[in-house]
Write a structure and sequence with these properties.
The chain is 32% helix and 26% strand. It is rod-shaped, with a radius of gyration of 35 Å. Helix 1 packs antiparallel against helix 2.
Length: 191
């Protein structure tokens, strides 16, 4: 809003400068009057440039206040309300992209030698007993660990196992975070 009056004033002062320079060239007005009109036009140009710098700075600040996600997803948690002050680097929102999910399987030491990157895994969720989700092994831990406490039986929790991360396409977003699943790694057929 502050730029428009300056733009109008610049147009007026440039027209006045041109008119007075024309009159000064035929000596209808003193050259000093034309010079003053030129100075007024230059001053208005400088004011407009300074105002434009301020407008550009505000645009940058506004852009820095706009949240942009690196990819589409669903907001699962909002850590701060609008208007709250937060420190740089604080997590404002938590988002998930449910179109691609991961699960971690725990494979015993005796069976880990049969697991390969890129291997297919067939996953069944308790919620969808007749449906099989296909996934791909994307990571196998390099070191064994004790089975996590969330595993069902005490005997299972005392064994050493290797974590195997499986990526699953979930285009219909049927699978959710924390959903219990059972998985079978598909053996590659020997040629």
């Amino acid at each position: 809003a502050g730029l428009k009056p300056l733009e109008v004033n610049l147009g007026r002062t440039e027209r006045e400068k041109a008119r007075l320079e024309g009159l000064a060239s035929i000596q209808a007005v003193p050259s000093q009057v034309a010079d003053e009109a030129g100075s007024a036009a230059e001053l208005t140009k400088a004011q407009l440039a300074a105002a434009q710098i301020n407008v550009d700075a505000v645009k940058v600040q506004l852009e820095e206040c706009t949240l942009k996600a690196p990819k589409s997803g669903v907001v699962t948690r909002r850590n701060y309300a609008p208007g709250e002050l937060l420190l740089p680097g604080a997590a404002l929102l938590t988002m998930v992209d449910l179109r691609e999910v991961h699960t971690v399987l725990y494979v015993s030491n005796a069976e880990v030698g049969r697991v390969r990157l890129g291997q297919t895994a067939e996953v069944v969720a308790d919620t969808y007993p007749g449906r099989t989700f296909r996934g791909t092994v994307i990571h196998v831990n390099e070191q064994a660990e004790f089975t996590p406490k969330s595993t069902q039986t005490k005997d299972d929790r005392t064994r050493l196992v290797f974590g195997v991360k499986v990526r699953l396409q979930n285009d219909d977003m049927a699978l959710r975070a924390g959903m219990p699943v059972e998985a079978v790694l598909v053996e590659e057929k020997k040629k």
